[in-house]
Amino acid sequence: MAVKLLGSIFIPVSRLEASIEFYTNHLKLTCRGIEEWGDGQRGATLFVSNSPAGAAMITLAETKEPFMVSDRPWFNFSCSDATEMHRLLQAHGCRVTELVSWDSPWNRHWMFDLYDPDGHPINLIEMIPIDAPVV
């Protein structure tokens, strides 16, 4: 028996509908619907539209209890054209960090953090292989 893939990352949220709207409108994730988990608990699983069938990305878990918001991202999303994404998110009034670029021996990286309605930072990163032409 072995792990096959990451099933989902659970993110505590205070307002489920507002969080669904944020993740679907700004990150273009697909929500399969709100689930009732019993005892008044609700959640929603969101996917990247081109992910393999059944591969969950994140689950928004609504809670009425106080929860910790990390000052550092717990995960990142690989994206294309991070520069344009950064510009568009700023234009839509989203809270983002500065766009930064750095190189590793393998890739050129463009990245920034985006903050969801509860203040969770989400890292967005574009990685371009060093030997690829820069556009």
UniProtKB/TrEMBL annotation:
- Record domain VOC: where: 5-127
Look up the signal peptide feature and give its range: none
Matching InterPro entries: Glyas_Bleomycin-R_OHBP_Dase (IPR029068), Glyas_Fos-R_dOase_dom (IPR004360), VOC_core (IPR037523)
Which SUPFAM superfamilies did the record assign?
Glyoxalase/Bleomycin resistance protein/Dihydroxybiphenyl dioxygenase
Residues that span the membrane, as ranges: none
Protein name as catalogued: VOC family protein
